[in-house]
Design goal:
By secondary structure, this protein is mainly α. The chain contains eight helices and four strands; from the N terminus they run H-H-H-H-H-E-E-E-E-H-H-H.
Length: 149
């Protein structure tokens, strides 16, 4: 679905007029109309306001143009409900809700996350624990969170 249709659907589900939505995100009714016809798109700051207003990710507002992955554990974030939130309620599209909660990382070290993954992830190849751990560690080392630590 294109972002124009997504915005209109979200607005209508909330029973908001274009004017009411415009007031909430500090734009004109005409701007909302242009978004919903596909003539223009909201700017970055307005997308943040819309994300907060509707409780969906910016990625969803844009029609899910990219697949999001948790930058801590690598899990695909296929649903907005899986995306973490900041303490103020805004979505943080970099992390899943299980790795980042209330503004804090759940796993303080890569080893603590590895301990969890080794015991909870499927192991269809029946790899020995040390080999599974090594492979998972290799994957984690490519993610933003662990590159920055």
């Amino acid at each position: 679905m294109e972002s124009a249709a997504i915005l209109r659907t979200l607005r209508e589900k909330r029973n908001l007029t274009q004017e009411q939505l415009a007031e909430k995100v500090l734009v004109t009714r005409q701007a909302v109309s242009r978004w919903e016809t596909g003539e223009t798109q909201p700017n970055t700051e307005t997308l943040k306001l819309l994300s907060r207003e509707f409780g969906v990710s910016i990625n969803t507002l844009l029609g899910s143009p990219r697949t999001l992955f948790c930058q801590c554990c690598g899990m695909p974030l296929q649903e907005d409900a899986w995306i973490s939130r900041e303490p103020d309620g805004t979505l943080n599209e970099d992390y899943c809700q299980w790795c980042y909660a209330n503004g804090r990382f759940v796993y303080p070290t890569r080893d603590s996350l590895l301990d969890f993954l080794v015991t909870h992830m499927p192991n269809p190849e029946a790899l020995p624990e040390d080999e599974l751990r090594r492979r998972l560690d290799q994957q984690l080392s490519q993610l933003k969170h662990w590159k920055e630590c």
